[in-house]
Fold this protein.
Amino acid sequence: MSEEKKDSVKRANEFTETFKAIKKEVHKIIIGQDEIIDLLLISLFSRGHCVLIGVPGLAKTLLINTLADTLGLSFNRIQFTPDLMPGDITGTEIIEEERESGKKAFKFVKGPIFANIVLADEINRTPPKTQAALLEGMQEYNVTTAGQTYQLDTPFFVLATQNPIEQEGTYPLPEAQLDRFMFNIWVDYPTFEEEKKIVSQTTSTKKETLTPILNKSKIEELQDLVRKVPVPETVLDYAVKMVGCTRPDSDQAPDFVKKYLSWGAGPRASQYLILGGKARALSEGRLNVTKEDIDALAVPVLRHRIVNNYAAEAEGFTTVKIIEMIIENLK
């Protein structure tokens, strides 16, 4: 084995051990939710963002806060409300008087978006203009106000939550804006045994202390490592073909897609399938991305990027069911 290959294997193993160590530390506070933690870490190391959908009380905020502490990153939570303004997220300019000269000048006061991990709690409760302020930062990694551009600190990771129950007085994110999120993650209720542990742990006096596993520079190093993982041509073809199959007007789309979908996923879905596949492979100590990696990430990557039509709704074909049918059709 060449020295270069040995070094690659060593770095892959380090990535795997770090991934496991983070999960172990997070599980000191969070019971269960293994798959969700995996997806959040895969997204972080792929430089993506996530939207989490689940009913209140499923520890979404606690999970994200715990993750920030474990990674040694700064964390801000923004509670989205109908009266929230863009400046409440990005920051505002105030007039400040200099003590020595008495002159007045504008000073920019940074908003909560200036953190490594930003939790946008109930993002669908605020109007599109305010949502756009956050989404611009996600895309550009900077904030522009009064003609001045301010760079956001990296790594920069946005996690938005939505409540699927209450829809009155909400402003659902348009599909074009949802596309900026790498994963759409559904948070389900815990199992009976998990809920017993949660209740026992949260109603006692015992307090766990978290130990930071990483720092900012190390996280960026691991993010760069993910990009370097090679992808076989066959897997690249498979990912792009899978996304192409979601487009009703495409020649490669199966008949059930043409019947049940009104809109398919764009190229960003293909990019995230490959990037996520690279991070998933490294998390398991592999230097090769497989079709199984792509299949495992297909639902969280594609679920919010495809739109089913009335025929699908009438016959009970959800977007998840259609994605599963596409995977089966490709085998």
User: Anything to note?
Assistant: The mean pLDDT is 84. The longest strand covers residues 91-97. Residues 89 and 111 are 5 Å apart (CA to CA). The two ends are 34 Å apart (CA to CA).
